Amino acid sequence: MVMMMAPGGTVEMARAVLDEGADAVYVGVVGWSRRGAQDELNDDEIRQTIDYAATKGKEVRLVVNTLPSSTEIPMFLEHITRYAEWGARGFMISDIGCIHLARTVLPRDVEIHTSVGCGITNYEDVKFLGDAGADYVVLPYRLSVEEIRQITAENDVGIEVFLFKTPSGGKICPGKCMMSSYFSFRRWLDANGKDHFHGSASRGGDCLRVCQTDWKFNIGEAEFDQPMTIKENPALWLEELPEYLAAGVKCLKVPGRDRSPDLVRSITRVYRRAVDEILGSDRPNLSPYAAELEVMRGRWKTERSKRDNRLLTEAEKESRRAMAAAL
User: Fold this and answer.
1) Residues 11-29 pLDDT 10s
2) What gap in Å lies between CA 255 and CA 119, rounded to an integer?
3) What does residue 242 show for φ and ψ, rounded to 5 degrees?
4) For residues 65 and 93, what is the distance between their CA atoms, to the nearest angstrom?
5) What is the mean pLDDT of residues 250-275?
6) How many other β-carbons are positioned within 10 Å of the β-carbon of residue 86?
7) What pLDDT, in 10s, does the model give residues 140-191?
8) Residue 168 pLDDT
9) Using H for helix, E for strand and C for coil, what is the string for the chain?
10) Taking Cα atoms as reference points, which of 138, 120, 68 lies closest to residue 98?
11) Residue 223 burial (CB < 10 Å; 0-12/13-18/19+)?
12) Of 196 and 89, which is predicted with more confidence?
């Protein structure tokens, strides 16, 4: 069985993707996932979403993929235990120690997904995380179909892939970048004693997308005249999907927690129909879905540009503020 998960950056988005046929919705917990608070849900919203999913026979999986400090681990365990009691059926975790601890406190039928922050590169990584307690291991954007075949041949852990990848594989492994922290780093405690950060996605703040701006590089006294970005923007994809499923992929992950609910609803609808076509036919015809997805790519690019421009502006402001404070 193949599970298709779609994002819920808001309650509206979460309900929309469940209505459009997603088997599960994944939502970030405020302060505990690698997004800003505007794309995460608080406890009341999480409970509403779990209850709504139950009425449709669907599931909610919660993103808790920051890197907790030692003092935050008891709070982390308290949160996931409570959400599991409410009916959450899975958790997405980056920290290896927390994956192990979560497996010891959660019911066995509540599944653990690794987050892309684990930085998988080969089948031994997958085996290690499976032994630590993961039921699903998500692969980074850059792996080929052949690499996925090698991974599934060596493991019985569920393999999860993004419906999203970089054309050339990218220069930075998603989840392993700390660049934003060098431009801006502020922290504050909430009423429960939880650390919140600006400038470090690994600690619950916004990634400022500084890899998306133009960079100039020097080698000695030689300066390259051609600016470049350090990381390419990933894009929605479809053509290789039959091969990915044939290679043993068990979970498909639609991206877009920080996009508009209407766009994510439309993307989920297209992928739901495409996956059903593939699973129901020996010779699936994906051309109608490819045409629809091309329209989605254009809408995605427009929304991405607006978001990246906003985040880069914030990064520039923070950089100027830090420089002024240092003078």
Assistant:
1) 999 999 999 999 999 999 9
2) 17
3) -55, -40
4) 4
5) 96
6) 16
7) 877 888 999 999 999 999 999 999 877 655 545 555 666 666 555 566 667 6
8) 58
9) CCEEEEECCCHHHHHHHHHCCCCEEEEEECCCCCCCHHHEECHHHHHHHHHHHHHCCCEEEEECCCCCCHHHHHHHHHHHHHHHHHCCCEEEECCHHHHHHHHHHCCCCCEEEECHHHCCCCHHHHHHHHHHCCCEEECCCCCCHHHHHHHHHHCCCEEEEECEECCCCCCCCCCCCCHHHHHCCEEEECCCCCEEEECCHHHCCCCCCHHHCCECCEECCEECCCCECCCCCCEECCCCHHHHHHCCEEEEECCCCCCCHHHHHHHHHHHHHHHHHHHHCCCCCCHHHHHHHHHHHHHHHHHHHHHHHHHHHHHHHHHHHHHHHHC
10) 68
11) exposed
12) 89
Q: Tell me the pLDDT tens digit for each residue of 59-90.
A: 999 999 988 989 899 999 999 999 999 999 99
Q: Which residues contact 82 (CB under 8 A, 6 or more apart)?
A: none
Nearest to 300 by CA among 312, 289, 288, 308: 308
Q: Give me the CATH code for the 3-326 domain, please.
A: 3.20.20.70
CA atoms of 79 and 42, how far apart (whole Å) = 12
With helix as H, strand as E and coil as C, how does 4-25 read?
Answer: EEEECCCHHHHHHHHHCCCCEE
242 with 284: CB under 8 angstroms?
Answer: yes
Q: 63 has which bridge partners?
A: 28, 92
Answer whether 235's CB lies under 8 Å from 300's CB: yes
Tokens standing for 163? 């419906």
**Distance (Å, rounded) from C-alpha 202 to C-alpha 190?**
17
Q: What is the pTM of this model?
A: 0.82
- The pLDDT score that the predictor gives to residue 137 is 97
| Burial degree of 106 (CB within 10 A; 0-12, 13-18, 19+) | buried
Question: 202 with 67: CB under 8 angstroms?
Answer: yes
Contact 258, 208 (CB under 8 A): no
